[in-house]
Design a protein that fits this description.
Structural class: mainly alpha
Distance between the termini: 129 Å
Number of domains: 2
Radius of gyration: 40 Å
Strand content: under 5%
Helix content: 55-70%
Largest sheet: none
Oligomer: single chain
Number of strands: 0
Order of helices and strands: HHHHHHHH
Length: 252
């Protein structure tokens, strides 16, 4: 049995930039060994043209795209490539580049995430409010919204008001409690919807803008039918004129 001399990728050097592939890296390493400066320069420029074709088309419109490619070319050859980049392109080693500061990940709620961050912010706002009917009404609105949010992610099971009350007390650390004798949370949510329609009506928007367009269409249809009647009266006037003209001819 013949022994095949197979070179596995696991035994080869690592690819520094996988988006270009191993072939580009090997071509650049070969270009580094070319003795003629003119031929070496032309070879590297041809390889960069191939890198542009391999890359996404949207990147070609970037202002610093060519500068990025030239920096990658020098990085692939360990900055030992003796070629001259085009004017205006600056070659910087990775350790010399200014790296942006990492963005802090936004802090999110760790408990009961199905309610969302808005509910946690509303609860904190209600805790800071002074005692009184305004705060009680605000807590009722928060609880009704919590039930809507809970039902959105739990449509298969019934969500009672007691579950929302318990969650409200847990999220507020016992500082917010629904007052005795409050209405059903479903009723409060329905009232919020009616209030929204009333506000739309006061603003001249209307609860359903499409219904106004349909009514306008029927009015326009009625006006057209009236216009049609006018057309018939015009035709009648034309018949009367013909009869008068025929009477004048007989007198003559």
């Amino acid at each position: 049995m013949n022994n095949l001399d197979i070179a596995y990728n696991t035994e080869r050097p690592d690819i520094r930039f996988p988006e270009y592939g191993r072939s580009i890296q090997e071509m650049l390493l070969h270009a580094k060994t070319i003795e003629s400066p003119q031929k070496r320069q032309k070879t590297v420029e041809s390889i960069i043209g191939l890198m542009i074709q391999l890359g996404p088309q949207g990147n070609r419109n970037m202002d610093d795209y060519r500068e990025k490619l030239w920096n990658h070319v020098f990085a692939l050859t360990n900055y030992e490539l003796d070629v001259t980049p085009p004017a205006g392109i600056i070659i910087r080693k990775e350790e010399d580049r200014v790296k942006p500061q990492p963005l802090g990940y936004p802090t999110t709620a760790t408990r009961m995430r199905h309610y969302g961050n808005s509910v946690h912010a509303l609860i904190q706002k209600a805790i800071e409010m002074p005692e009184g009917p305004k705060r009680e009404g605000f807590v009722e609105v928060i609880a009704s919204y919590m039930k809507l949010a809970y039902k959105t992610w739990n449509k298969e099971h019934y969500v009672s008001d007691d579950i929302v009350k318990e969650d409200l007390e847990i999220l507020s650390n016992g500082l917010l409690v629904l007052h005795e004798g409050h209405d059903s949370l479903d009723k409060l949510a329905a009232g919020v919807g009616k209030l929204d329609n009333r506000n739309r009506t006061n603003l001249g928007i209307g609860p359903n803008p499409s219904s106004g367009r349909r009514r306008g269409g029927r009015n326009r249809g009625g006006s057209n039918s009236g216009g049609g009647g006018g057309g018939r009266s015009n035709s009648g006037g034309g018949n009367n004129n013909n009869q008068n003209n025929s009477g004048r001819r007989r007198k003559r």
